[in-house]
Amino acid sequence: MAGEEEARTRTERRLKRAAQLLFFRRHRVPGVKGWELKKALGDDYLEVLGVLDSALDRLGMEVKRISEEGEARGSGGEGGGEGEEERAARDRFMIVLKEPVIEKASGERIDDVAMLAATVAFIISKQGKAPRKAVEELLNDKFPKQRVLFALDRYIRQGYLGEDEGVVYIGWRTRAEVDRKSLVDLILSS
What is the DSSP track for 30-75? Predict the structure, then answer.
């Protein structure tokens, strides 16, 4: 009995610690890297995150695992379980809403949200990548040039977009926080 109670208390502490790490931002970028969770929670941190995900499900939230390197991943067949552990250590874990409940939950200006939505929709229409100049031209038709340049740089810094040699693409944070299918459906229905 005492050992069972001790194990339950330990699990509760680890669950609370995982929630604290994921809910409260410590860096500019939300979420926590897998290696940080492993250090704080132990080797079975993925199991703790599974329990936390189950608890958050009732609140309309989920723990999301995002690869910052891109959506496509190798099969991991050659490394066995070790390759998966290494990928999990590099990935970012964050808590996101399953469905948008409150329209003003982001805290961003409406024109900034509009710029991001237009940029993401434009990039999706171009099969996931678009020249930065083309994105700037699109946004310059509706917004001041200085705001557009500042906003694009900020979206790249925050992880909503990525840029490689003048080509802009969907960032890891957009993959985590934005339901791209719903965005496209909303734009097409307008």
Answer: -SEEHHHHHHHH-TTHHHHHHHHHHHHHTTTEEEEEE-TT-S----
